[in-house]
Amino acid sequence: MKKKSLLALLMSAVMCFTLCGCDTIDRIFGNDRYDDYYDDGYYDNGYYDGDYRDSERVSNLISHYINVGQGDCEFIEFPDGETMLIDAGPSDSGSKIVRYIRNLGYDRIDYVVATHPHADHIGGMKKVIEAFDIGAVYMPKAETNTSTYENLLEAIQNKGKKIKTAKAGTRIFDTGDNSLKIETLAPNSSSYEELNDYSVVLKITYGKVRLLYMGDAETTSEREILKKNYDVSADVVKVGHHGSSSSSGQNFVNEVDAQYAIFSLGADNDYGHPHKQVVDRWTKSGAQVLRTDEYGTIVLTTDGSKFDIDTEKG
Question: What 3-state class would DSSP assign to 155?
């Protein structure tokens, strides 16, 4: 009987980790083991990048929601010629992402954001960092001792870079006249029970068009964002945690009030993503749902006043 009870307990633990939708990790939050990789003092809440390349400015901002299967990856081309990568999918996505960005004609990524250290978000990032000239690197202070995370730190270090700690209130970029702004809405706390809630949440505003990128932020982080009275209204949202029921709370969905809700996930994944109630929640709010497992890579192009969306599968 004791053996059966122990087996049942172990099976329950495995199911608990499986349902979270990300890899199992050994968390070491609060440990200073990785402090040498971070440079916390470089940016403060009032910082903005004054080196705006007006001479190179073109009219469009382009956001690529790259299909990496069960994971997340977004690549953004800014009107000044700079670029940003948000996450890089699982480890087998690295080569695909490198080819995709090179085919767009870039050999540099000015801003690299790893929303949180789950393997389906940072697995391919080591290969991307090794392949490109890299500018600033942003990550939350959420540390693990997985080989995926440690390999990423090593790749960043080998590029001679320090990590900028991403937290709510940081403006990564701001022209000063609201024509282009990149701001961080989360994380708002220094400690969470769930690693997903450390996710960096970004809002990009270009003219009248607003884009929101949620990482894997769950309802705990969403409530904090709303409590801080951040403006989460967006025309297009990359939905949190692949459409899991642990994210996209009703109040948050209502406040975002998006025209389009983009779900990044793999076909027939093991986690049941996206959950039906979440898809229904966004649909009932008035958003058109687009899924990478159905449409492939999704590309948004905007001139700051209107936007168009194209998909890989038409």
Answer: helix
